[in-house]
């Protein structure tokens, strides 16, 4: 279902992937610095989640400024929260690369604001989190991650030139949030692995994301 979400004097293009049965939780998903919401990995994940009963709303925001992207993400969260068509108990924020930085930044902002995030946001999914620029491991983009309290899933390639394995594990050990890292063996930042098809890699990612979501939703109902 295509929608246009008002954002300042513009609109954000977005698409709902709707499960057959009514969904109680949703995932909001966005792309990295390049591309848009129709990036193949996002299409694949959204279709997988919807076929497994999870509503997925993916959106495009072309800005290359993290603060701008964060603002757009906030607008989409508020739009879904107030939606009459889809009444959800909560959402998980998900993004690829720069999109995951914007999601992390928003969760930190909301957790530090006076009204708090009132439990609507249940967790964060970081696909290829860009922890540092290529070859610039001394400057880590970890400040938002260290403030987050909700559950976090990282899915990263073990050969990602923007997220060195030991560095992400070091940041994760300092995080206060419940967290899990799933390494895609020999994958680069774009999740390409020599000798494996894109579909094969995406199947692994999609299954990991869904099982983590299910664990976190089930925990709440125990």
Automatic annotation (TrEMBL):
InterPro entries to which the protein is assigned, alphabetical: AB_hydrolase_fold, KANL3/Tex30_Abhydrolase, NSL3/Tex30
The protein, known as: TEX30 protein
Family annotation (Gene3D superfamilies): alpha/beta hydrolase
Source organism of this protein record: Onychorhynchus coronatus
Positions of the KANL3/Tex30 alpha/beta hydrolase-like domain: 27-211
């Amino acid at each position: 279902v295509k929608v246009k979400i008002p954002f300042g004097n513009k609109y954000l293009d977005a698409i709902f992937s709707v499960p057959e049965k009514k969904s109680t939780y949703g995932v909001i998903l966005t792309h990295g610095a390049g591309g848009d919401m129709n990036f193949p990995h996002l299409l694949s994940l959204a279709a997988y989640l919807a076929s497994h009963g999870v509503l997925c709303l993916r959106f495009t925001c072309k800005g290359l400024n993290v603060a701008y992207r964060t603002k757009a993400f906030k607008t989409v969260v508020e739009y879904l929260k107030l939606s009459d068509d889809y009444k959800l108990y909560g959402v998980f924020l998900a993004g690829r690369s720069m999109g995951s930085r914007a999601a992390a930044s928003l969760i930190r902002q909301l957790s530090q604001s006076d009204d708090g995030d009132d439990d609507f946001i249940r967790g964060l999914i970081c696909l290829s989190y860009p922890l540092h620029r290529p070859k610039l491991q001394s400057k880590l983009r970890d400040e938002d991650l260290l403030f987050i309290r909700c559950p976090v899933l990282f899915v990263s390639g073990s050969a990602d030139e923007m997220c060195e394995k030991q560095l992400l594990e070091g940041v994760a050990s300092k995080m206060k949030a419940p967290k899990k890292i799933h390494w895609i063996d020999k994958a680069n930042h774009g999740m390409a692995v020599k000798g494996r098809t894109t579909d094969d890699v995406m199947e692994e990612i999609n299954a990991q994301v869904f099982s983590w979501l299910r664990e976190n939703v089930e925990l709440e109902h125990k």
